[in-house]
Amino acid sequence: MRTKGWGLKAAALGAILYLHVPIVFVFLYAFTTEEASFRFPPPGLTTRWFAVAWANADIRAALGLSLRVAFVSMIVALILGTLTAGAVWRTKFFGRETLSLFIILPIALPGIITGIALRSAINLVDLPFSFWTIVIGHATFCVAVAYNNVIARLRRTSPSLIEASMDLGARGWQTFRHVLLPQMSSALVTGGMLAFALSFDEIIVTTFTAGNQQTLPIWIFSSLVRPRNRPVTNVVALVVVVLTFVPIALAQRFSRRAEEAT
Amino acid sequence: MTTPEKPTIQRIATALYRRPRLRLALLLGVPLLWMVGVYGGSIASLLVQSFFKLDSFSGTVDRSLTLDTWRDLFTGANMSVAARTIGMAASVTIASVVIAFPLAYYMARYASRRTKAVLVMAVLVPLWSSYLVRVYSWKLILSADGIVSWFFGRLGLSGLLDAILGLPGIGGPSLSVSFLGQFLVFVYIWLPYMVLPIQAALERVPRSFLEASADLGARPATTFRKVAWPLAIPGVAAGSIFTFSLTLGDYIIPTVIGDSSPFIGLAIYSYQGVAGNLPLAAAFAFVPIAVMGLYLVGAKRLGAFEAL
Amino acid sequence: MRRMVSLLAALALVLAACGSGDEAVAGGPLQEIGEGEGAVVIVAWAGYIENGETDSAYDWVTQFEADTGCAVEVKTAGTSDEMVALMTGSDEFDLVTASGDASLRLIAGGTVQEVNTDLIPSWSTVDDRLQSAPWHTVDGKHYGTPYQWGANVLAYNTDVFGNSPPASWSVIFEPTDLPDGATNEGRVQAYDGPIYVADAAVYLKSLRPELGIGDPYQLNEDQYQAALGVLRTQRTLVGRYWHDAFIQIDDFTNEGVAASASWPFQVNILQADGAPIASTIPAEGATGWADTTMMHANAPHPNCAYKWLDWSLNPKVQGDLAAWFGSVPSVPAACEGNDLLGAEGCTTNGFENFDRISFWKTPTEDCNGTAAAGACVPYYRWVTDYLAVIGGR
Question: Cα-flanking dihedrals φ and ψ of residue C291, to 5°?
């Protein structure tokens, strides 16, 4: 058992390294003195790209837009996902299987399909491309993660809990607030975080559903092909990771606590 | 339990609890409209577009129904694009399972609570650091004068690297221009999507199952084969939906890494954006839709939908 | 099944009805420039509209904004086709810096409008060779103002070629040994846009005169097949086709690329970095681009758009941009007295090469109106076939 454990440990460590060594290089090149093309090892190190990034109004605008899109998409996805999960849970109805398929579909089909389909539909109804068309695209594929987390949680919630609450005299609303909602909160946090992350870093669907709005990935995509902006993209990637580290860690911790409490 | 609530809310809630049909309609109305109406409708309109065709004279779309576009789809060139993409998606999926499983198994089975929290973070963090920046970083890692060849050179292993690049089919002038390099990047980018569902599936296996197996004298390999693996299958299937579908549609990695051979995503993107041939792009879009359709049917049988 | 078909047919009719209102025709060009609308939205190549954010020395936006009160918004596009898609797909853009392979498509599709050159005082300063160029002038009407132009050059590594530049495009089209003794296999690159078929045609034009290739964008079936043949041979030599300028810069730095079809833009950046790269236009001549700033038929800010059209011809703007992008100004006056460009800048960027360049334009079935329909291979076939060539078919 012990030797087997070591083999497993090594394999797990290998996978973690595979995921993280490239990120180390992403971070390293946020400090390179090169402006256009990168070489290894970098000829020198500097922190000036952080100042450049800080002073760049485009980045702030793009970051702001991405945060707003991700937030609204997350909320819409959580609402739609929770409603659907609530309906599918404990109720059998015609087309139930088809509905759950439709929920999964946008995330199971490649982003380019969702993008191109929505784009041609948006064109057909003559809707101008805007913040809201981006949100429509993102929320559509985020519903799946919200739905999956909530339904998984509900499936583990014993129906007798609700019956007990009702038997003890709680009204429907009270049961929802004091029994169901706490049960679902960890699922909502996990699903919401995942939906937010998916939306925040999404480029393919956005390419098709945005007009001239620049989300952060779109800014990065255009900046990767501009001299002097390239190291700045590394800075942005680094800063985003550092900034998101704390909220993800907190959310993880919260959902783990909630999980253990039940 | 005596928190004062607004009586109207109470009444509505109770009414809803008693009338399941009404409750269902209220719950489902908006999601149905959005997912089936907007999303399903968009896919349907895409299907309709594939029965139009591009007028070769004006370069505009001729909106009369025809099967010509579908005939154009089934050319050797397009089919080889599809075959190449599906082959890549399958190999990426298999490799992801092989790499993700030990990590997920370790997280679910051996890691202390603290270690597990750290590992979950470690798997989640790459999802937050820009996909684009990470893809581009691989160019430098894999290029002829890049990081991998630098380290191989330092270790005196350049000969080994050349031998790998000399392999027919997967090699090339440098790692970043080879099938192998492209494969490494695809696996790298989609790996977290495989680790998390497998880990979640394994978490649901009570430890006692595995312990019982060991107590009954099964060797670790047997425990894995007979107990852990079958129970992890829904998670594997769920993760594979992501790795397979994401590889199937990606058009950014093939333009940055590899020998420029077109993939389905790239072909759809060029037909739509470059050629302005939306009907052909729409028809081509139904290749991944059909493939994923079949895949989903299989995955559902394996219980993937419960493990997503 | 029949129900399905009739359902689809009904849907199609609805779609057709929706689509017919697309092309709103403006009532002729503006006759008078009024008050600015406070903004102008431009679809442009990356690096074409600089506001000093990338490098404070290169800024031709801030002054314009201060002078006119029109805030400049830029949407960058990576390819001509992306530009066409953006312009046709939306009414929110005013201007586009379209290359010749996009401009005629935009004119034919009614996406851009005729401009009234009387409202553009700087029009008279435009290079004579460009004033009525066929890629923006149709039936004597001008559909925009020339912005910049340049050649698709052959970039080569001076460590490989020494100081004698390759004399022919054959170094990237045919299997051959390079001056450093090694083969060119896996060490050359080509552009991954379908318009690159024309580069093969330019090469064939002098290699096989019996094909009778005239205009490389007007190829009959035989000439076209011969060009595809050249490209298939090239596929066996090319490690990777380049799609965006930056990836190619990386490849020159890190992949040991010996020679490639390229833009002066990449060569400038590489040289500034000290890389051993130079460029040349081989004996066969070259393809090139000439960009026109064109105005959307439904431009939401026409007054600001006209102000930008005039500003874009300002010699200082033209010269700075030429220095930044490695291109040639469309206003000859810009070549003199520009610090960023230097005294020899225009010559270096190819001012004298105009006649050796076949400028990008969209291939059409009727050979750009010079022959019967079906005489030439149209662009959408270039797209599918070039994709197939890159896929190894």
Answer: -100, 145
Picking from B269-283, C178-192, C235-249, C320-334, which range would have the lowest pLDDT averaged per residue? Answer: B269-283
Mean pLDDT of the B38-45 span: 91
- Chain C residues whose CB is inside 8 A of the B146 CB are 254
**Strand, helix or coil for residue A212:** coil
Of the candidates B76, B206, A62, A35, the residue with the CA atom closest to the CA atom of residue C387: B76
Mean pLDDT, rounded, of chain B:
85
Type and span of the H or E element at C73: strand C71-77
Q: Give the burial string for C166-185 (b: 16+ CB within 10 Å, else e).
A: bebbbbbbeeeebeeeeebe
- pTM of the entire structure? 0.86
pLDDT band for position A251 (50/70/90)?
Answer: confident
Mutate one of B47, B78, B141, B274 to test the C interface: name it (highest C CB count within 10 A): B274
Domains, chain C, ranges and CATH? 2-149+290-352 (3.40.190.10), 151-287+364-390 (3.40.190.10)
**Closest Cα in chain C to B66:** C9
The predicted structure's pLDDT at residue A137: 94
Strand partners, C387: none
Question: Would you call A43 an interface residue with chain C, using a CB distance cutoff of 8 Å?
Answer: no
Q: Is B221 on the interface with C (CB under 8 A)?
A: no
Yes or no: say if A108 and A141 are a contact pair by the CB < 8 Å rule. no
Burial of C368 (0-12, 13-18, 19+ CB in 10 A): middle
Q: Identify the pLDDT of residue B307.
A: 65
Look at B176 and C253 and tell me if their CB atoms are within 8 Å: no
Q: What percent of chain C has pLDDT over 70?
A: 93
> Is-contact A217 A230, C-beta < 8 A?
no
Contacts of B28 in chain A (CB under 8 A): 83-84, 87, 99
CA A23 to mean position of chain CA atoms: 19
Q: What does pLDDT average to over chain C?
A: 87
A91·B41 Cβ contact <8 A: no
Q: Say what the alpha-carbon torsion angle B201, B206, B210, B211 is, to the nearest 10 degrees.
A: 160
Residues in Cβ contact with A37 at an 8 Å cutoff, skipping those fewer than 6 apart: C246, C249, C250, C252, C253, C254, C269, C270, C273, C275
Of B48, B140, B172, the CB nearest to C12: B48
- With cut-offs at 50, 70 and 90, classify the pLDDT of residue C207: very high
pLDDT tens figures, C119-145 = 999 999 999 999 989 889 988 899 999
Report chain A residues whose CB lies below 8 A from the CB of C75: 212
Q: Are C249 and A36 an interchain contact pair (Cβ–Cβ within 8 Å)?
A: yes
- 3-state DSSP call for residue B139? helix
CA distance B73 to chain A (A): 16
Give the mean pLDDT of B139-168.
89
Of the residues C14, C101, C111, C255, the best mutation for testing chain B's interface (the one with the most B CB atoms within 10 Å of its CB) is C255
Query: Given CB atoms, is A225 within the 8 Å cutoff of chain C?
Result: yes
CA distance C220 to C228: 12
Instruction: Answer whether A51's CB lies under 8 Å from A120's CB.
Output: no
Determine the angle formed by the axes of helices B179-203 and B113-128, rounding to 10 degrees.
140
Residue C246 is predicted with a pLDDT of: 79
C-alpha torsion C145→C149→C152→C157, nearest 10: -150
> What was the pLDDT predicted at A212?
74
Contacts of A226 in chain C (CB under 8 A): 46-47, 54, 246
The residues, any chain, with a CB within 8 Å of residue C165's CB and separated by 6 or more, are C154, C156, C278, C280, C282
Please state, for a pLDDT cut of 70, what percent of chain B lies above it. Answer: 92
Q: Read off the pLDDT of residues B237-261 as tens digits, 9 standing for 90 and up.
A: 989 999 999 999 999 999 889 988 9
Q: Which two tokens stand for residue B71?
A: 């005939």
